Amino acid sequence: MSERANIAIVGAGLMGHGIAQVFARAGHRVRVYDAFQASLDSLHARIESNLRDLEEPADCLRLVSGHADLGEALESAQFVFECAPEKLELKKQIFIELEKHAPADAVLASNTSVMPIGSIVGDLATRSRMLGAHWWNPPFLVPLVEVVGTPDTDVRHIEAMIDLLAKAGKTPVRVMKDVAGFVGNRLQHALWREAVALVAEGICDAETVDIVIKASFGRRLAVLGPLENSDLIGTELTLDIHKTIIPTLDRSTGPNPYLDKLMAEGRLGVKSGEGFRRWTPEEVQDLRKRVFTHLKKMNASDREEDSGAA
Prior knowledge:
Elements: E1 6-10, H1 14-25, E2 29-33, H2 37-41, H3 43-54, E3 64-67, H4 70-74, E4 79-82, H5 88-101, E5 107-110, H6 117-121, E6 130-135, E7 144-149, H7 155-167, E8 171-175, H8 184-200, H9 206-214, H10 226-233, H11 235-245, H12 257-264, H13 281-309
Parallel strand pairs: 1-2, 1-4, 2-3, 4-5, 5-6, 7-8
Antiparallel strand pairs: 6-7
Helix pairs in contact: 1-3, 10-11
């Protein structure tokens, strides 16, 4: 692959425009398709706003173009990223179209966060070039991309995707088995399952759950993963702790009924002003600002460490 690739992105929404931004900043030519003209009309403005918040130049915008015609967007593409909503039938239909219209040697990737890739591409003829590339939101701030192959995926395409992402400044990891949620969301939602259960069982309120996480092990997660921590304290101690705590953890095999209760009461989260907690518009704005600022600082720190190591 040449240093500058032709990238096509299907979907100009929350994830699509951010992924376009990453590749354009890395010097790649990016064509973005969307069926809704309004999304294309605001594409450059949204990327420019992100770059302004990051205090980065906007010259890369010249490498990004929006397209209402899928075939036009896919022309000469070497890598295609599907960024449609998390609806299986929609994604399956998109991949049918991608197989028809993308260049025969293009790598076709889904950005699904939880769906097994095989469930999306299982009936297609050229499955060897199809894989998952799960970016995290916002894609221009969170480094990780999970690269997931199916049993049919050619390892050369997996390696090419990992190389492309690494050179664009991302942190790609290879997921060896195509399972629901891959690695990151399986870990995240195991934590969320227990968090919901703690509230549902009256052990603590929602605010306490979030405070405990953020003021304890959450502070070290960026530099100390759970298995690193286990090795630091010793696997013997880990085993002893697990003998006591594992049998008491929530073992639900489906969503907690407490979530059904929230839905029935119209407590939909920030969009309705209340979910697990009550929210004012000012509190929501402040939270989003704090998350953005935190991730921005972490990325700046990573760059400083990399330059120091060099």
